[in-house]
Fold:
Amino acid sequence: MRALRIATAVAALALTLAGCVARESASDAKPSSGFTPSETSSEAAEPSDTESAGASTTAGDCGFKTDESGQEPAVGLPPDDGSLTAASLTLTTSAGPIAIQLDAGRAPCTVESMVFLAGKGFFDNTICHRLTAAASLKVLQCGDPEGTGSGGPGYVVPDELPTDLPAGTDGSVTYPRGIVAMANAGPDTTGSQFFLVYGDSTLPPNYTVFGTMDATGLATLDQIAAAGITPGANGAEDGAPATQVTIQSAKAA
Structure:
C-alpha cells in the first residue's frame, strides 16, 4: 500500500504524517527541514479573499478514477456532474462535535468527494488514527476506514493545491490553525484521509485545503490534543491519540 504522507522536520528528526490510498505500494515523501512554525492563533482560520485561487478544477471536471489497484471502489465513484455540494460537514466524534465549513470554491472536487463519502456513511464508526504534537506540525489525521493509515476509498481525487497560504523563505507554507486539508502520497494520490490543524503547521504547499473548523470544533480538537499521544515509530510527538477518537457519524448539509 502507498502511504499518504505529510513531511516536516523537528530539529534533526523527520516526522511524517502518514495516510494512504488503498491497496497501493509503499512510498515516502521527501521531508523538509528548517521549518519555523508561525504563532498559533486562538481562533479558527477564516477564509481569505483569495482563498479560491488554489482551485484548478471545477465540479463536473474532476475525472475521479480508481486507484492503482484497478479494482472497482466498494462505494463506487462520486458523480462528476457537480450535483453534490454542501456548506458544511459535521463530524460527531467520541470527543465532541467538529463542524467543518466546506469551501467548494477553493476545492470543488475534494468537497464533492467528501460529501459523497459522508452520504455513503464511509466515515461512520472510523477512528482518527494519528495525532502529532511537534513544534511545526500539530494535526489530527482521520478518514481511514481501516484505522491503520493504510485505507482509502478505492479512488483518487485530483489535487486542488493552495496558492495563498503564508509562505516561508524555503518553499514551505503555513497551514493555519483551523484549516482542514487532505493527506496524500505525492501528486494525484489524494483519497479519503484528511488532517485537522490545531496549531499552525509548516509544510510544503502539497495538500488540498477544503475547509475550516469553527470554534466549537477547535475546542474539541484541543481537548483531543491535551489528552496526549501514544508514542509511535516516530517518537513521543507522533502516534495514536492517547484516548481513542471515533468518528461516530459524518453528515454534510
